[in-house]
Records
---
Amino acid sequence: MISHENIVNMAKDCNIKDEEWIVNILNKITDISQQNRFSHQPFRIKKIAIKKFAIPEYGGVSCIPSEKNCLIWGSHRSGKSTTYDALLYGLLGKRAVLRPSIGKVDVSITLSNGSMDMKITRKYKKSILVEIGNEPYEGVEATSILQEYTGIDPDDYRTFRGITLPQRSETDSILQLTNAKELTPIIERFGSDKKFSQTKDFVLTSLDEIETVVKQLEVQDSDMAHEETDVKQRISSTKYQINQLKDYIKNYESGKLKKLVQTLEKNPEIKNQLQKLEHEFQQLQREDLRLRRLVGTATHKYVDKTPEEVVENVLLKVVCPVCENVIDAERIQNRINNKYRCPLCNEQYSWDILDKAELKVEESKKVEEWSERIKEINQRKTKIDDEKKKINFEYSHETTRRVIKEQISEKDYTGVKEKLERANELLKDDEERLKKLDLARRQNKEELNELKNKKDFIKYLINNLDDTKSLEKAEDEFENTINTIFRRITNSGTIIDYENGEIHLVEQYGSRERKRRARDKYDISVGEKRALDISIVLSLFSMNQESRYYNIDFIILDDVTEGILDDVWKNNLIEIIDEIGINTQLVCTSYDKQIKQLNFSCEEKLQVQTRLDENW
């Protein structure tokens, strides 16, 4: 886990000003580090009732360990391994059992954690039944309840088998049942710190939340930028209009307008020339405004976008009026290709929205062409002004237009004054709006910068919660633990080398090294093979006790000393298991008298059954 000191230092390095946010992050990580994956205490086995399983000759088991160590005692062919399979079947179902047939089964296992009992029942041709108190759960619901309380998942049976020891090591051990690629994730699961995973999930969720807000702010800034452009254009247009109107009023009040009308009446050629110039100017002015509006609506820059991206871009501007969140991009994306339906509301739509998006793309491609045309218009408008000067007519276009039309009455004058008053009010409103937009954009930019700093900080956390580091940590823990256990059993200097799912036994003879592959059964002895299988299981179980991948506090060992022929090795093994049994419930099957050195509170004896059960 990342230390609080590192988190605080990184937050400072990222220039994050929101101290409350940092405190919340720290508090959440602290809460996660202090909580358990499961809300209940780990479970032990309270009662076992196996009436039928696999073969008619099997006599079954009925015992009440009451959450304490339990020994199921039986001679050769009495059903010890059948009992082991029945226990796996009861907990995990048929897929966990490596038998061609399991017959007419009747198995129930009661788990308890001291405060609650959970009875698991599996019967022939019936769904799993889980009973908690007086509440029964069947089928999928029962499986879900079992997983919720214990973490046991029938679909993940290989992982659970990794913390149980089969007697049939040649075929049923985890090393024989998994290849290198399958063993690696099993080790990672047991070694993975669930608090680590929860912290990573929290950090990733925080990143998603930040990116959602960033996207909202970017959309808002884009909208404000477009509005700012519109307001600036309107201010420019309004100022131009005000100057034009003021020119008219000034010339009206000075009495020049009447003289101008009289002059034009005497010079019809000049009047005609002015009319042509003014008519052209007004056309250019209208075209200029139209093109500027088109350029304004096309400023999303769709030139390099697909129609699908255009639709997503446009719809992401839609904000829910209830929760104020931008509509989910993934949902839009999933709906875009559904023709004739709106990707926003999914209702029937008369025209393929992608066709409209295609038009947007085409419009965007014309922005450059329109901008070039606007330049040409402005150049021509300048020339028109120059031509007016040549005929000694340096009045505004508003004045020129009204003089040509002889709009110089008192009524016209009053109308222009009212128009000027409205234009000044509009200019005042727009200038105030522009100030607010400028302030809002600056605040938006500051917030975006803060969020981007938070993103950098979150990415730092993610880098420190890298899955590869989690796997490396799990593999190191596994290798250290298996070496400790194997060396204690064998009293040897053999090194267990684990890498990428492969296990090797390594011995040093001076400068010479001997390396044997554990999966090669002809390269290691029977005793070494069994000692290694036991070491793997006990290592994984030890890791589970730390990580609580499974919320259990019992281990099932089938004929644990079988294959350990060396008395010293066997005594060492029993000593290790005895230590485990202090804080963990042992459920063992055996016919080895030495195993009775362990403290078993419950002992059940299996009988070799030679008579077929008539009720089978």
---
Amino acid sequence: MPILYITAYADDHLLQRAKITTPFGYICKPIQEDMLRTNIEIALYNHQQKRKLHESEERFRGAFETSGIGIPPDKLSDIFAPFQQIHHPDIQAEGTGGGIL
């Protein structure tokens, strides 16, 4: 829920305390109706955007966590097969990279 402070106090100590609650606004009295309406609209919009971002992060986190990390074991042989073809422990051929395996 978005928090919007309306207060008659604007001292730095109170402002620092209010920041801890991550408000969507901090309005000092006296206020005008159009200023209040604008701040409420912005607070609701920012809250909606923050919620959408959180939902998106959760979707991507879920997709990432279920996709696994790294190379699946059954695919390792496919990836390393070309290197194994040029590597023979008894033969050294220049330019094949076989000597570095």
